[in-house]
Design a protein that fits this description.
This protein is mainly alpha-helical and about 130 residues long. The protein contains 6 helices and no strands.
């Protein structure tokens, strides 16, 4: 093996890690689609409430996926925080009129995915398998 080759076990772990991330994102998408109709339409018309509803839908589905994989509640809570915190933090500039409703939704999603990845990297031993 040359110095530039990655050991096979590391490649497998990275593939599992990546697959796990993709599974969580897929679960979140399913949650957005399946749970969206359960909410009152008046809530969804408001950008701030709509953002929190969407974060909730994604978190519920992601939690179910993580429970199926037998993750611990502390890891599930960390991932849920990574999903909610961007939206909650962005509510301040939204309420101050500095950020539009569309900006809230876009920025919340843009920040959520790297935060989820950061949580996974931080606890990578949990997500390798």
């Amino acid at each position: 093996m040359t110095t530039t080759e990655v050991p096979r076990s590391t490649t497998r772990k990275l593939a599992r890690f990546t697959g796990h991330y993709v599974e969580m994102v897929a679960a979140m998408l399913v949650g957005m689609v399946v749970l969206h109709p359960l909410w009152p339409s008046a809530w969804l018309e408001r950008a701030d409430a709509g953002a929190l509803v969407m974060a909730t839908n994604m978190t519920v589905a992601m939690t179910a996926a993580m429970l199926l994989r037998r993750h611990s509640w502390p890891r599930i809570a960390e991932m849920a925080a990574a999903m909610y915190l961007p939206f909650v933090a962005l509510l301040v500039p939204f309420r101050l009129g500095v950020l539009s409703g569309t900006g809230l939704m876009v920025a919340g999603h843009v920040l959520m995915f790297p935060l989820m990845l950061a949580a996974m990297v931080w606890r990578r031993a949990e997500y390798w398998h």
